[in-house]
Design a protein that fits this description.
The complex is a heterodimer.
Chain A: E1 7-9, H1 11-20, H2 22-31, E2 35-40, H3 43-57, E3 67-69, H4 78-81, E4 100-108, H5 112-124, E5 129-138, E6 149-154, E7 160-165, E8 170-175
Parallel strand pairs in A: 2-3, 2-4, 4-5, 5-6
Antiparallel strand pairs in A: 1-8, 7-8
Chain B: H1 25-39, E1 56-61, H2 66-78, E2 82-87, H3 99-108, E3 113-118, H4 123-130, E4 136-142, H5 148-162, E5 169-173, H6 180-191, E6 196-200, E7 216-218, H7 221-225, E8 230-233, H8 238-242, H9 249-256, H10 260-263, E9 271-273, H11 286-289, H12 296-326
Parallel strand pairs in B: 1-2, 1-3, 3-4, 5-6, 5-8, 6-7, 8-9
Helix pairs in contact in B: 1-5, 1-12, 2-12, 5-6, 5-12
Chain lengths: 177, 337
């Protein structure tokens, strides 16, 4: 278990972060190939669902189906950690080829999850473009991967955790124990 | 004192997959959940994941089997592993080389995993005890003892259609005595808490220890089928008729064959399963094997995902164990079986 959080961002603040992502996404979607959203399980799917609903409500052209990825089979730590528990299969109910994929995660940390997710997407087909949208971008990345659209950037070090609760829309930051 | 279960390594995680006896419901459920994740791969342009890239899997088949060997081969390939098919039926073992000598040779080929199929009960067990510590063993069927991946793919097929096991009545028909599939099915269903497992067949084809197998024994197929949710028909091997354990194929069909009329005695949504290959008109009618309730071909398809799950879980466990040794890190890795 992690220690109690040093900082909590409440529902109002996090809602602002989420809503702030909508306009830049609309601008990107307007200029590209037909767009479709894919969330990375599990936290990314909740963020993806929020953005999907908000974008559709504003009439943004978006594939009516939403995809989700479970990247357990693409992780780069298999040889040191073994297979991570698999909860739910990947499901991409549309052809990704020539699509503009809006890839969504909750927290962008090391960049390894996004790398794995992009590898998996290319096994479904060849997208025209991938836009990376995350609720929170950390600053302690390990790979040259940054979000195109981030709800908020939080300065963190590897010793800190960031949790977000999709039900309460609350984000907490604290020291890993 | 009994020897520790050779399926587990020093870190207490699953290193080999030899027998379902001794495993718990959490372990089996993790395999089923992982297999569920692999089923989606069939819908993709590239039906392969990179998990076992750079690993070498050897199919060691001391007994002929096209289906099982092919299923393991495809599973390994979909995990990006390299696979060697070594036919030991016609190879050096028949030239007099001992099993242990054969093993040493295969270890020297830098293999990471052996899939063992052998006509003798306990062969996979024996190999697991004597193999180099970094190698994983999967039992692809040993004698009349165990066929654990078949057991897992059967419960996977059942779970996909029926969800929960607790209220299910499963009927297994035929040659229970000589069937490693029946033993593994019974073990898997019992561990996962199936409501009731029934076995039915001629007395000559019932194992002597059937009373201790946690099943209800029936001699009348009509009685056994009443209220069944799942019916597993077993293959009747021709040699059973040769040595007069059963009178004739026609007689067997009349008494224990799964005919359309008999199928109607089970619940209307009962699943019909068979490990294959089927003897039509002996243990099962062709129209039942091909009928709307049959999931026989689904079993074959799911067999790939289930074997991918077993292979990746056990190989990941031994990798994680050696990594934690190398790093001198005393913290145990989490979330492993």
């Amino acid at each position: 278990m992690n220690s109690s959080p040093d900082k909590i961002y409440d529902r109002g603040t996090v809602t602002q972060w989420l809503n702030g992502m909508v306009k830049p996404l609309q601008q990107r979607i307007a200029t590209g190939a037909p767009a479709a959203i894919i969330g990375i399980r599990r936290g990314g799917v909740d963020v993806a669902q929020y953005l999907y609903t908000a974008l559709r409500a504003q009439g943004t052209a978006l594939d009516e189906n939403m995809g989700q990825l479970n990247i357990a089979f693409y992780r780069d730590d298999f040889s040191s950690m073994g297979l991570h528990p698999v909860v739910g299969a990947s499901d991409v109910p549309f052809d990704v080829t020539e699509k503009h994929i809006i890839l969504v995660d909750d927290v962008l940390g090391t960049g390894r999850t996004v790398r794995a997710a992009m590898n998996e997407i290319f096994d479904y087909g060849r997208p025209a473009q991938i836009t990376l949208a995350v609720l929170i971008q950390r600053t302690d990345h390990e790979l040259p991967i940054r979000a195109d659209v981030a709800g908020q950037i939080l300065c963190t070090n590897p010793g800190e955790y960031i949790d977000w609760d999709a039900d309460t829309l609350q984000v907490s930051v604290g020291a890993k124990s | 004192m009994s020897l520790p279960d050779p399926q587990f390594n020093a870190a207490g995680t699953l290193q080999h997959f030899i027998d379902l006896q001794g495993l718990d419901a959490d372990t089996l459920t993790r395999i089923l959940d992982t297999a569920e994740g692999f089923t989606g791969i069939n819908d993709r342009k590239i039906k392969q994941v990179p998990l076992l890239r750079g690993k070498t899997v050897a199919n060691l088949f001391f007994e002929n089997s096209t289906r099982t060997r092919t299923a393991f081969e495809l599973a390994a390939k979909r995990l990006s592993a390299d696979i060697l098919n070594i036919d030991l039926v016609t190879s050096s073992t028949s030239k007099g080389e001992s099993l242990l000598d054969t093993l040493r040779v295969l270890e020297s080929l830098q293999c990471d995993m052996f899939i063992v199929r052998h006509a003798d009960s306990g062969a996979a067990h024996f190999i697991a005890r004597h193999v180099a510590p970094h190698i994983n063993i999967i039992n692809g069927g040993d004698g009349q003892h165990s066929h654990p991946t078949q057991g897992m793919l059967d419960v996977f097929t059942i779970r996909r259609h029926k969800g929960d096991f607790s209220n299910l009545c499963v009927v297994i028909i035929g040659d229970i005595k000589h069937s490693r599939v029946a033993r593994s099915d019974i073990a898997a269903l019992t561990i996962l808490g199936a409501g009731e497992v029934r076995v039915v067949g001629p007395k000559t084809l019932m194992p002597s220890d059937v009373e201790s197998m946690n099943v209800k024994v029936f001699s009348s197929l009509d009685t056994a089928l009443k209220g069944a949710d799942v019916i597993i028909s077993l293959r009747l091997q021709k040699e059973r008729m040769k040595n007069a354990t059963v009178p004739s194929s026609g007689e067997f069909y009349r008494t224990y064959g799964l005919s359309p009329q008999r199928l109607a005695l089970a619940k209307p949504d009962a699943l019909v399963m068979h490990p294959g290959p089927t003897n039509r008109g002996v243990e099962i009618a062709g129209s039942v094997a091909d009928g709307a309730q049959s999931v026989i071909l689904e079993q074959v398809t799911y067999g790939i995902a289930v074997r991918m799950a077993v292979m990746s879980i056990i190989m990941g466990n031994s990798d994680a164990m050696s990594a934690s040794r190398i790093s001198n890190n005393t913290t145990t890795t989490d979330a492993q079986l």
